[in-house]
Task: inverse folding
C-alpha cells in the first residue's frame, strides 16, 4: 500500500552520520543510493577483473569452470541490479525534486523503504556466495532449464537466492517508480508545464513508466521460475507440459525495456550538460522530449529480438526486427539534437563535458552495432558470441556509466558543497575512455570470428584480441583509482562549491550548494519559460534577481 | 538550516500541487507534503494489473501450445458453484459503491453497514474458493493446468484477502476523525475492490469458460 506523505524527517544536520541511517529526505536517500551503488560497482568490477584475468590466456587456468559460470552471472546481476539501477535512482532522488521545484519526493517514507531494500537484496545476493553449491551460475538471464538444476537438492540454493534478490529489486524499483512518476506529475512548481521541464525530468518520467509496465511482468515470470525450482511445478518444464521459451518472453519483455530505463536518464544527463558547456539552448527541445516517450512505446514491442534463435515464428522475427530498427529514429533525433547543440558553441571541456561527449561517441557506436544485431540473419550468426557482449558493454559502460560519471562531475558540488578536482577528473576520463574502447572494441571481431560468450577456455586463434580486451579491462580497473581519490579528497579538503559553479540555468542552480532540506521552502519560484535559455538573457523564474540576491547573501 | 529569504509574497502563484499539507508547520525542519497518495495508488494498481496480465498471457500461451491440458482423469472444471461465488463477488462491487454513495451523503450508519456487507461478501467468496480447492481431484503439482489454476486463483485470493484487510483498516481509521486522509483511504480501498473484481472476471473466463 502507498503510505501517506505526511512524515516528519529529522532536521537536516550537518553530520555525515545521517547518511548511514533511516532518512526520508530525498537528498539524503539520493546520496545513499549512489554510495551503495558505487560500492557494488567495485564488487562487480572486481569480478570483471577476475573474468578478464581468466580470459587473458586460452586455457581455463585461473578459476574452476563452475566458478567461472558463477562469476559472469554475478558480475552481470550486480552491475545491473546493484550498480546501475540504484545509481540512477540516486540521480532521480537528487535531481527530480530540485529541477521541478518540489520540496521532496511525493512519498518520502516509501522512498526510504525502496532504498533500504537495496542493501537487503544486495546482502542476499552476496550471501549466495556462501551457500553450498555456490551462487547462481545460469547467466544473468537465468533461462530454464539451466536455472532449474538443483543437484544438491537444497531449498535455499544460489539460484533461489538469486530469484529472491531480483524479485526484491523489482519491488524496490516499482516503489521508486511510483514515487518519481507521482512527483513529476503532481509536484511541479507553478508555471512549470510539462514542456518547460528539463529533459532529465522527461527521461526520468519515461524510464520510470517503463519500470511500472515491465517489472510486474518479470516479477510474475520470476515467481513461476521460483515455484518450478522449489515447489515442483512445471511452468517452464517441458516434461510437465510447460514451455521454457515462455520464460524468455517474460524475461525480455522487461529486460529489454530495462536497457531504456538505464539509457533514457543518461540521455537526460547528456541533454542537460551539453547546453551548459556549449552555452547554447538544447536544439529541438520538444522533439527530444517527445522522443523519450516514443522510445517508451517502442521499447515495449521489441523484446523478441533477443529470441530470434529461440524457435519463434518467422512472422515474429520479421515484426520485431522492424520495431527494433524503428528505435533508431527517436534515438537518432536525440543524437542529431546533441550534435546541433554543440555545433559552433563555446565549448568548455570540463570533466563532465568530456564524459558526456565520450559517452555519446560510445553510444553512437553501440547504436550502429545494435542495428546490425536487429537484423535477423546477423543476429542468428553472432548470437551468443562476443559481438553481443561487446555491443551491450558499449551501451552499459561506454554510454551509461560514462553518463553517470558526467552527472557526478556536474552535480557533485551542488549536493556535497565541495568541488571535485578537474585534473583528477580528466585523468579519470582519459583512462575510462581508452579502457572502455580497448576492452570492448576487440569483442566485436572476436564475435564475428565466432568466439562464444560464457566460456572460460577458447581456441588459441582468439588469443590476440582477448589479450587486448583484458588490458583494456585492467585500465578500466585502474581508472577507478583517480575517481575514488577525487571523491575522497574533495570531501575532505575540496574547494567550497559556489551555488552555480558552471554558470548554468535551472532551478537547482538558484539554491545554495548543498540546498536546504526543503529546497525552496515557502518561496517556490514561478517558472516563466522553458529550460536552457543560454544566450537569451531572459530570466527563468519570476523575481529571479531576488533569488540570486539571496544566494549572494548566503554565500557571503 | 540555511534559508533563502526571497521577498515573493507567500502563496503567490501556487499551483494545485504546492498547497501546504494539513500538518505543515512553518519553520519545523522537514515539512509535511501535500497528499498525492491516490495518484500513487492508481499507478500502483495499473502496475499490479500487469502481474495478472503476465499470468493470463502465460496461461494462454501454455494452453494453446499444450497437447493434454487437464490432469489425467479430469475432464474440465465444475463451473456452477464457482459461478454463484462469482455473482457474490461481482455484486460486492455494487455494495461498496452504495457504501461510498451513502458516505458522500453523510449517512454514516448506512455507509458502515454496506461497507461491512462488502467485507462479508468478500469473505464468503474466499470461503467458496477454499471449498472448491478442497473438492478438487488434482493438486498444485499435477501438471501445468493445475499449476496455473492454483497460481491464478491463489494469487487472486491473496488480493481478495488483502482487500478485506484494507477495507477493515480504512473503516477503523474513518471512525477516528483525527487521522487525516481517511476519505482518500476509503477511496483507495474502493478502487482496489473494483480492481479485484475485474481481474476475477477475466480469470473466470480463462479458467472456467475457455475449454
Result:
Amino acid at each position: 500500500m502507498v503510505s501517506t506523505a505526511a512524515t516528519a524527517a529529522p532536521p537536516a544536520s550537518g553530520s555525515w552520520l545521517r547518511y548511514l541511517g533511516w532518512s526520508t529526505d530525498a537528498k539524503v536517500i539520493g546520496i545513499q543510493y549512489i554510495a551503495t551503488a558505487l560500492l557494488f560497482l567495485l564488487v562487480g568490477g572486481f569480478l570483471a577483473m577476475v573474468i578478464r584475468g581468466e580470459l587473458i590466456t586460452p586455457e581455463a587456468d585461473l578459476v574452476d569452470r563452475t566458478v567461472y559460470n558463477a562469476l559472469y552471472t554475478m558480475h552481470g546481476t550486480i552491475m545491473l541490479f546493484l550498480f546501475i539501477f540504484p545509481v540512477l535512482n540516486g540521480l532521480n532522488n537528487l535531481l527530480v525534486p530540485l529541477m521541478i521545484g518540489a520540496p521532496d519526493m511525493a512519498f518520502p517514507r516509501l522512498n526510504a523503504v525502496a532504498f533500504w531494500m537495496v542493501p537487503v537484496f544486495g546482502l542476499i545476493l552476496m550471501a549466495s556466495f556462501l551457500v553450498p553449491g555456490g551462487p547462481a551460475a545460469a547467466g544473468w538471464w537465468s533461462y530454464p532449464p539451466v536455472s532449474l538444476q538443483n543437484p544438491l537438492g537444497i531449498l535455499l540454493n544460489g539460484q533461489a537466492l538469486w530469484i529472491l534478490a531480483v524479485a526484491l529489486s523489482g519491488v524496490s524499483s516499482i516503489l521508486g517508480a511510483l514515487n518519481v512518476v507521482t512527483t513529476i506529475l503532481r509536484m511541479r512548481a507553478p508555471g512549470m508545464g510539462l514542456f518547460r521541464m528539463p529533459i532529465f525530468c522527461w527521461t526520468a518520467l519515461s524510464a520510470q513508466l517503463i519500470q511500472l509496465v515491465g517489472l510486474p511482468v518479470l516479477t510474475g515470470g520470476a515467481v513461476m521460475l521460483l515455484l518450478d525450482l522449489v515447489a515442483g511445478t512445471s511452468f517452464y518444464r517441458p516434461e510437465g507440459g510447460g514451455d521454457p521459451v515462455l520464460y524468455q518472453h517474460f524475461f525480455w519483455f522487461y529486460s529489454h525495456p530495462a536497457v531504456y530505463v538505464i539509457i533514457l536518464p543518461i540521455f537526460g544527463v547528456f541533454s542537460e550538460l551539453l547546453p551548459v558547456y556549449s552555452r547554447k539552448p538544447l536544439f529541438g527541445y520538444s522533439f527530444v522530449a517527445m522522443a523519450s516517450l516514443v522510445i517508451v512505446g517502442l521499447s515495449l514491442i521489441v523484446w523478441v529480438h533477443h529470441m530470434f534463435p529461440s524457435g519463434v515464428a518467422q512472422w515474429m522475427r520479421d515484426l520485431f526486427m522492424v520495431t527494433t530498427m524503428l528505435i533508431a529514429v527517436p534515438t537518432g533525433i536525440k543524437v542529431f539534437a546533441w550534435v546541433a547543440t554543440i555545433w559552433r558553441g563555446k565549448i568548455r571541456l570540463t570533466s563532465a563535458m568530456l564524459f558526456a561527449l565520450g559517452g555519446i561517441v560510445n553510444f553512437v557506436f553501440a547504436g550502429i552495432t545494435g542495428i546490425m544485431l536487429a537484423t535477423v540473419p546477423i543476429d542468428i550468426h553472432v548470437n551468443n558470441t562476443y559481438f553481443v557482449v561487446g555491443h551491450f558493454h558499449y551501451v552499459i559502460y561506454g554510454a551509461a556509466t560514462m553518463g553517470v560519471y558526467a552527472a557526478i562531475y556536474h552535480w557533485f558540488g551542488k549536493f556535497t558543497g565541495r568541488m571535485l578536482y578537474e585534473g583528477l577528473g580528466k585523468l579519470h576520463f582519459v583512462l575510462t575512455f581508452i579502457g572502455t574502447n580497448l576492452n570492448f572494441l576487440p569483442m566485436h571481431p572476436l564475435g564475428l570470428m565466432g568466439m562464444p560468450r560464457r566460456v572460460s577456455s577458447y581456441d588459441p586463434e582468439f588469443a590476440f584480441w582477448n589479450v587486448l580486451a583484458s588490458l583494456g579491462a585492467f585500465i578500466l580497473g585502474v581508472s577507478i583509482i583517480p575517481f575514488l581519490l577525487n571523491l575522497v579528497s574533495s570531501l575532505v579538503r575540496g574547494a567550497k562549491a559556489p551555488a552555480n559553479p558552471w554558470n548554468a540555468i535551472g532551478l537547482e542552480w538558484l539554491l545554495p550548494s548543498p540546498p536546504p532540506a526543503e529546497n525552496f521552502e515557502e518561496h517556490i519560484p514561478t517558472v516563466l519559460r522553458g529550460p536552457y535559455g543560454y544566450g537569451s538573457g531572459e530570466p527563468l523564474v519570476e523575481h529571479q534577481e531576488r533569488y540570486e540576491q539571496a544566494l549572494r547573501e548566503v554565500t557571503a | 538550516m540555511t534559508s533563502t529569504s526571497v521577498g515573493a509574497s507567500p502563496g503567490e502563484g501556487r499551483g494545485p500541487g504546492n498547497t501546504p499539507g494539513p500538518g505543515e508547520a512553518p519553520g519545523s525542519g522537514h515539512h509535511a507534503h501535500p497528499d498525492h497518495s491516490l495518484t500513487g495508488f492508481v499507478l500502483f494498481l495499473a502496475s499490479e494489473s500487469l502481474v495478472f496480465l503476465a499470468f493470463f498471457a502465460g496461461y494462454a500461451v501454455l494452453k494453446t501450445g499444450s497437447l493434454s491440458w487437464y490432469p489425467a482423469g479430469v475432464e474440465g472444471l465444475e463451473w456452477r458453484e464457482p459461478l454463484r461465488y462469482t455473482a457474490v463477488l461481482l455484486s460486492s462491487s455494487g455494495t461498496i459503491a452504495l457504501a461510498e454513495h451513502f458516505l458522500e451523503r453523510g449517512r454514516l450508519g448506512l455507509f458502515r453497514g454496506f461497507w461491512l456487507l462488502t467485507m462479508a461478501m468478500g469473505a464468503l467468496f474466499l470461503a467458496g474458493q477454499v471449498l472448491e480447492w478442497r473438492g478438487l481431484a488434482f493438486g498444485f503439482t499435477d501438471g501445468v493446468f493445475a499449476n496455473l489454476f492454483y497460481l491464478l486463483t491463489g494469487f487472486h485470493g491473496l488480493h481478495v484477502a488483502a482487500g478485506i484487510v484494507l477495507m477493515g483498516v480504512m473503516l477503523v481509521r474513518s471512525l477516528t476523525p483525527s487521522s487525516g486522509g481517511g476519505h482518500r483511504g476509503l477511496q483507495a480501498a474502493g478502487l482496489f475492490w473494483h480492481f479485484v473484481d475485474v481481474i476475477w472476471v477475466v480469470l473466470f473466463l480463462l479458467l472456467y469458460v475457455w475449454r
About this structure: Residues 1-32 of chain B have pLDDT under 50 and may be disordered. Residues 143-175 of chain B form the longest helix (33 residues). Chain B touches chain A through 65 residues (CB under 8 Å). Chain B has five helices and no strands.
